Amino acid sequence: SNDNMNLTNQIQAQEYLNKQLNERLAQNELQFQEVQTKAHHVYG
């Protein structure tokens, strides 16, 4: 039915957004670790 299609599309869009957010989060964590490492060398 049409309702099922709409739900399927919504779920797929949500999964796509979740994937993008997770990738950005992973990048942020890497950058944060880099900053921590640099700060360690400067202030440690």
How would you describe what is shown here?
By secondary structure, the protein is mostly helical. Helices cover 95% and strands 0% of the residues. It has 1 helix and no strands. The chain has one helix spanning 2-43. The radius of gyration is 19 Å and the shape is rod-shaped. 0% of the residues are buried. The mean pLDDT is 96. Residues 4-38 form a coiled coil. Keywords: Coiled coil.
**Roughly how many Å is the radius of gyration?**
19 Å
Low-confidence stretches: none
How far from one another are the termini? 63 Å
Oligomer kind? single chain
SSE string: H
Q: How would you sum up the major sheet?
A: none
Counting H and I runs of at least 4 residues, what is the number of helices? 1
How many β-strand stretches? 0
Q: Report the portion of residues in β strands.
A: under 5%
| Structural category | mainly alpha
- Form type: rod-shaped
- Share of residues in helices: over 70%
Arithmetic mean pLDDT: 96
Short description:
With 44 residues, this protein is mainly alpha-helical. Helix content is 95%, strand content 0%.
Key traits:
44 residues, mainly alpha, 1 helix, 95% helix
SSE blueprint and pairings:
Layout: H1 2-43
